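B., you asked whether I could sanity-check this one before it goes into the benchmark set. Here's the sequence:
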Amino acid sequence: MKRLVCGIGMCIIMAASTWGQSIKKEEVKRFSVYNDTLLFNNEFKPKLDYRYIKDTKHFKADIDFNYLAPSSQFQSSIQQARKAFAIPGALIFVGVYSGHQDNSHSWIGKHTIQEKVRSEFPGFRSHLDDYIQWGPIAMTYGLKAGGIRGANNMWTSTKLLLKAEFLTGIICHTFKRLACNTRPNGRNTKSFPSGHTSQAFVAATFMHKELGHISPWYSVAAYGMASTVGTMRMMNNMHWFSDVMVGAALGIGMTNLVYMLHDNRQKRKARQWVAVPVVNSENVGLAMNVRL
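And here's what the prediction gave me:
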């Protein structure tokens, strides 16, 4: 009698979970033979009784481990990370190479480039870069307020922006204190990396993530403003080329990281699960599987 009651209860659990999670019958069949099974026999047994499964019409012992293994999710995460950090990695490489003392006077060295910039724009001074670094953020909120729907709502996009700003600011100011690189104008030793440039590229990447799928011109405008900020930092004799490159990499990389983690969390919230009863002459158990 106890086994009959347990069997009926397990069937109810299976039906409810299958209906609630919209799992196909084929998927239930695969999950039913998953080897992480809890058997309620006053002890833990890590696998099913395959002798019983082979003798039963409803269950089969052929386990599709390729289906159960999270290889596809792992490969997807690798592709996401590669896409998020490919450009920042290239910018960091160029910046570090340019700023190294052995390369500083090469064709792409920071001293060589700075000398060319100053020769083309002698005595240049403008405060415009102090303001347009915030331009993409203002444009994003303005367009959203005007009725253009972005990738996220106002509250979610604000949280993501604040996280990206916090991470970028912490890393940028930490490197400034550790590197102690002197500015081209000799004002102080907080040259590396460029804080204005990192801020500008956080704002540009934020606009790209929120509105870039609507039109590529939003991304062009955002990164155009950010690049202008980096150029003006060199024209104002406030930063070297290496400072600007690494600052841009920080802004892009940290914003991409925040959005990537957010997207992965949203996918995990939509995961599916199923519970399948296992009943034989000796044991009553429940096989469960969660698709991450």
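One thing to flag: DSSP finds twelve helices and three strands in the chain. Otherwise nothing jumped out at me.
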